[in-house]
Amino acid sequence: MSIETTTYSKVSIPNHMRDEIERIIENDKRLGFVSIQEFVKEAIRRSIIQYGGISDQNPDELDE
What we know:
The chain is an all-alpha fold and 64 residues long. It has helices at 15-27, 36-50.
């Protein structure tokens, strides 16, 4: 039985976008984000689905 490991890449965003993400995370705890990384990962996942990069029926493929 082999265990798949996820590899990661880094991306850069402008500081003003990072600041806005931090503001959103801090001001709306109902969203459930605890880090900028979580917020950005979810935003990218939603964009991939929206633009047809993966089937809407199986978005779990992007969870890891």
